[in-house]
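note to self: dont lose this again. the chain is below, predicted strucutre after it. 382 aa total, dont forget to put it in the shared folder this time
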Amino acid sequence: MEFTLNIPVKYIFGKNTIERIGAEIAAENVKKVLLLAGGGSIKKNGVYDQVVNSLKQNGIEWIELWDVQPNPVLSHARKAIEIVKRDGLEAILAVGGGSVIDEAKAIAGGFYLGDVWEAFSGKARIKKALPIFTVLTLSASASEINTNAVLLNEETNQKWATGAPSLFPKVSIVDPTVQYSLPWNQTVNGFIDSMSHITEVYFTDDIEISLELYEGIMRTLISSIKKLKLNEQDYLPRANLVYSSSMALSAFPRCGCGGDWSQHGIEHGISGMFPKIAHAAGLSALYPAWLEFMYPYNKSIFDRWAVKVFGVETFDEALKAFLKLLVELDSPYSIKQLGIKEEDIEPMTDLILQGGQPGKLKSLDKADIMTILRNSYNYKIN
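---
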């Protein structure tokens, strides 16, 4: 059990915290930022007005760039880097969910590279980055508290990840109340993504404190999403879901455990090939088939998951309970539900393997990946 824990993010959580963003940026001696955002929902829920008012009050200039995609794309990141260089911007302010924050990290690190894609293709390492600030509006990726970023090269359909210590945000503002207005499926997607972040690590872990922490977070995620299904504006379960999502892919519970990441690796092939499919929808569709395939490779931890998280005695019972929850949440449990066709499976597998064989519990070869995808395609609930 050896690890180094360093999470240099000022994480500001709670109601009415967005108004602090301008002062936090000013405290870092930054005077001009790129305000990066998605499709415009922040103008409908009041977040945009809160942010720009705070920037004005603290003498921060900004230039806006919109239209970050749910699976952020390379061409948009390259465009943003040119704007940052052209206008002498000093930092990136990401206002949105994980996709916006991921692209902000790509921009911040790519600013110092010949081409930003080099960091994702493994040709270069990010050693330096512009300061990153975030105002979170959708909890899922935990990008607000970690060093990870994912970007889609729309020319090759490669959806690959990078990470570096310099990509930690300086400050992240997290007000759970701004997520009251989210469409229900986006709240569910955040829950699925967070659960997957945990199970990718949990099923490879052997450190007791880490296992206990993750079990508590998973139980909290499940109880919170069930309560939110009854009342989406119930503050305490919303706050618990939001904070649990951040913890799910924070370095804090991991204690140095690397994780498996094959579910994510396979899903990146799905949303890489079909960018309109939300990342978490792909994870959800893979979940049952992936769990069943992986179970033989670490039965003791999967069985522990059944007892500690679902309060049942066997993995089969836990899988049934999880499937029941997916159905209750109207979340997919088969890639067929996403509109994927059987003939898509082999080219999708080839795309996945361009990034290497995913998996730690088992290094997945082409036959393994196709088995998981076919099992998901044909998955039925008894």
